[in-house]
Specification:
The protein has 220 residues and is α/β, with parallel strands linked by helices. The chain has one domain: Rossmann fold (3-Layer(aba) Sandwich). The protein is 29% helix and 26% strand. The chain has seven helices and nine strands. The strands form two sheets. A seven-stranded mixed sheet has the order 5-4-3-6-7-8-9. β3, α5 and β4 form a beta-alpha-beta unit. α1 crosses α4. It is globular and about 50 Å long.
Length: 220
């Protein structure tokens, strides 16, 4: 069994262990195929590539991490992405989550507040041939209104509350996936669905631990 195959097996085991919380016995096969295809090891520094397929997060510098493979797969699955979708990601980090999404949808817009990470991720994604990802270095709390509304929005850092600009930029019928809570406390991975008439339906899926959303509003 290769390391990549072992990673996929670990994701399947995590799904089995959390099936009552997430409400399903398996993730979308398209999501699993994207996880198998994207070269996770290419999103880590050379010195940490041996940790690429471990069943946990890996630091990427500047106080940030590349999330556990299971969490990346789960958050992608919870978005329920369709091939024609446009997705907004808040918190590019290494660019790995954006790359997984780019395998599944038409367009990914992604924001990163840490300038060195933004620069490295943009260069990495370009080098790997991803042409349907656009990256902006900015405080993602305010989203990216120029390209709204989005079919889905995913936030890869924990916020103390759901940013209102992201709700406003979500298309009716779309989903927002975000960890909510404070650093050092149990956070809840939440899915917010916007109904066709603009109403909101929120459900808590799973207890998680994410680095905090940074920027002007991240610690409000």
């Amino acid at each position: 069994m290769t390391q990549r195959q072992a990673m996929l097996r670990d994701i399947e085991i995590e799904v089995e262990l959390t099936r009552h919380s997430i409400g399903k016995d398996a993730l979308d096969p398209r999501v699993m195929a994207a996880m198998a295809k994207v070269p996770r090891e290419r999103f880590l520094p050379d010195s940490l590539r041996h940790l690429a397929f471990r069943d946990g997060p890996v630091p990427i510098g500047h106080g940030q991490t590349i999330s556990q493979p299971y969490i990346v797969a789960l958050m992608t699955d919870l978005l329920a992405p369709e091939p024609g979708d446009t997705i907004l990601e808040i918190g590019t980090g290494s660019g790995y989550q954006a790359a997984v999404l780019a395998e599944l949808v038409q367009r990914v817009y992604t924001t990163e507040i840490v300038e060195p990470l933004a620069t490295e991720a943009a260069e990495r994604l370009s080098r790997l041939g991803y042409r349907n990802i656009e990256l902006r270095r900015c405080d993602g709390y305010g989203g990216w209104p120029e390209h709204a509304p989005y079919d889905g929005i995913v936030v890869t850092a924990a916020a103390p509350h759901i940013p209102q600009p992201l709700i406003e930029q979500l298309k009716p019928g779309g989903r927002l996936v975000i960890p909510v809570g404070l650093p050092g406390e149990i956070q809840e991975l939440e899915v917010v669905e916007k109904t066709k008439d603009g109403g909101l339906h929120t459900r808590q899926v799973l207890g998680v631990a994410f680095v905090p959303l940074t920027g002007g509003h991240g610690a409000d």
